[in-house]
Amino acid sequence: MAYNSWFECIDPECGERMSLTEIAYTCPKCGGLLMVAHDLEALKNRSSAAWMKLFDDRYMTTQFPYGSGVWGKKEWVYPQIEDDNIVSTNEGGSNLFWAYRLGEILGINQLWIKQAGNSHTGSFKDLGMTVLVSAVQQMIHDGADIQAVICASTGDTSAAVAAYCATAGIPAVVLLPKNKVTTSQLVQPLANGALTLAIDTDFDGCMAIVKRLSEDKRFYLANSINPLRIEGQKTLSVEIVQQDDWQVPDWVIVPSGNLGNITAIGLGFQMMLELGLINKLPRLVAAQAAAAAPLYNSYKTGFKEFTAVQAQATQATAIQIGNPVSAPRAIPILEAFNGIVEQATENELAQAASLADSTGLFACPQTGVALAALMKLTEKKIISPDDRVIVISTANGLKFADFKIGYHNEALAGITSKLANKPVELPGDYDTVVKAITKRAP
């Protein structure tokens, strides 16, 4: 059965449409943001039960590319692309971790962590980048003169761009704010051969330069203003429900910076509802670092106003964004989902991440922001003990070793390390070791 998708302006009064092979990031008619739209009437010709069976039959198999958590849902993502041009590292399929010990501490009976950072490059960005780089591969195959894929990044996007472009043999150029990303994040694009430019500015400054570069159609923009990224990331919603036998959670809490992921997750749930795979929507929570919280400020006004801010330093560097490009996409999603925006201070995110780690996780600071938001909403009794809660963990904690070491060495400025756990140095003596163990034992 033939399915179709296209770019469409998010402004319903405009409604401009373009092919997915057009090199465009905003509407050429009105300047608005673009989204990918699908022929839902054609998709409805397959029953909801048939869609669920198809997705389950493909899930995590070795059949390329359909074993991917993204491309197993190809008809909902980019149905027209040729399989031979798909660039995949078998992304998706990440663990939905039952955090029962953390849930016991917080008073939540059904707490799950979607470990989206357990991916090829260690972050959820792989879900969107497989679609974007595959689209570029298709365009090059069709004759487009694309000489490089470019992005601005605080770390994770650059890693995904570099890895997927290296897989495809397409040049990549990444702009990073100098001295504002971790060493482990910086080394990823270097290792994958990307031209890596450390710019003496913040993320928003890098983004301004990349936008200008993208006016030259030889340089294809990979940031989340590009709606192809969102198409891959929306499969996260489908996978969460699929992993729970097609049951819908009560809450989904998402670390939020540039606001592409909260948009994507909302779109995934809306598509499942429209096509009959689910019969209700969860509530969404966008969790922001207090140092970079323009969406939280807007939420306090009932979304009547939205003003960019100058992002301040935060341990949650991946969401240290003061002017999120996807705000016009995200706000309607949050309104449709009766959503909440919460913020977390540096101390709150650090304590939340450390508490989660003590129960078996290894949370990145962005996930710490989401967990801190969960703790606040639980304390306010907005989230109830019997609610089923999914927290999106967006990156692998191994990318943030400096954050972990700083916490346990009590070296993070402005943070009291309540759960610091330092190595105990002892002489090479058996009895001393036994005494240290028995002293620590409960």
Keywords:
single chain; 442 residues; alpha/beta; Rossmann fold; six-stranded mixed beta sheet; four-stranded parallel beta sheet; 17 helices
What would you say about this model in short?
The protein has 442 residues and is of the alpha/beta class.
How much helix is in the residues? 25-40%
Distinct helical segment count: 17
Which architecture name of the domain at 96-122 and 230-408 does CATH use?
3-Layer(aba) Sandwich
Strand content: 5-15%
Poorly predicted regions are none
User: Which descriptor suits the 3D outline?
Assistant: globular
CA distance, first residue to last residue: 62 Å
* The CATH topology of the domain at 96-122 and 230-408: Rossmann fold
CATH class assignment of the domain at 96-122 and 230-408: Alpha Beta
The biggest beta sheet reads: 6 strands, mixed
Number of strands: 13
As laid out across the biggest beta sheet, the strand order is 4-5-13-10-11-12
Element order, helices and strands?
EEEHHHEHEHEHEHEHEHHEHEHHEHHEHH
Structural class: alpha/beta
Mean pLDDT, all residues: 96
How large is the radius of gyration? 22 Å
